[in-house]
Amino acid sequence: MLELIDVSVARGSVPVLEGVSLALGPGEALVLRGPNGSGKTTLLRAVAGLQPALAGRIGGQENVAYAGHADGLKASLSVSENLRFWAAAFGTRDISTALVAYDLSALEVRWAGNLSAGQKRRLGLARLLVTGRPVWVLDEPTVSLDAASVALFAAAVRAHLAQGGAALIATHIDLGLGAEVGVLDVARHRARFPAASGDEAFL
Ligand SMILES: Nc1ncnc2c1ncn2[C@@H]1O[C@H](COP(=O)(O)OP(=O)(O)OP(=O)(O)O)[C@@H](O)[C@H]1O
């Protein structure tokens, strides 16, 4: 569903990570670990197709639904309108599963712009459920979430995996997803050599 073979990525003109290989099949999840600035976001952006890899091959990008630091919400649309917008964009219809999974039913008619930070994050994560995409690529998904919302998120990931989905998640917290979830420490892949040219296209 997702395969990285010997992938290198850069930010600005600076190589950040090199030699990253991984594969995710149905029901599999991998947690990315590494200190601040080690390159987790850069790698996930490349996996999501938001920037090219410097080298290597990324297969299965068409399967990916990405949730990054920005929630990607339309402030002047309601919660349900946001979900309907994304459902239409991905050619799906059902938003009720997403509303229930992230406890958003009571907020359905509220403008997204008027939500709290944690509520916005819940709505941003609920978007994943309406994409119908099997591989979730998530960058610090639990930022702004309280303990109850982290539990909702972990349950949504578990259900996604149980239904044959996959997930690649950069997170500093233990999501309690179980011992079968792999961990990749990106610090082991820190790039060793400076860039040969000054390509600023990724900024
Ligand atoms: N827009 C940018 N232009 C140039 N360099 C950047 C840019 N954004 C990040 N960087 C640099 O790229 C490197 C990797 O950053 P990245 O955001 O991928 O790390 P991270 O592991 O996700 O960090 P964190 O845990 O703090 O989120 C860092 O040295 C960072 O300073």
Task: Write up this protein.
InterPro entries: AAA+_ATPase (IPR003593), ABC_transporter-like_ATP-bd (IPR003439), ABC_transporter-like_CS (IPR017871), ABC_transptr_haem_export_CcmA (IPR005895), P-loop_NTPase (IPR027417). This protein is α/β, with parallel strands linked by helices. 28% of the residues lie in helices and 24% in strands. It has one domain (26-53, 63-185): P-loop containing nucleotide triphosphate hydrolases (Rossmann fold, 3-Layer(aba) Sandwich), CATH 3.40.50.300. The chain has helices at residues 40-47, 79-89, 96-101, 117-131, 147-162, and strands at 2-11, 14-24, 29-33, 55-59, 64-67, 135-139, 166-170, 182-185. The strands form two sheets. The protein has a five-stranded parallel sheet with strand order 5-6-7-3-8, with helices on both faces. The protein has a three-stranded antiparallel sheet with strand order 2-1-4, with helices on one face. Helix 2 runs parallel beside helix 4 (117-131). The protein is globular and about 50 Å long. The structure holds adenosine-5'-triphosphate (ATP).
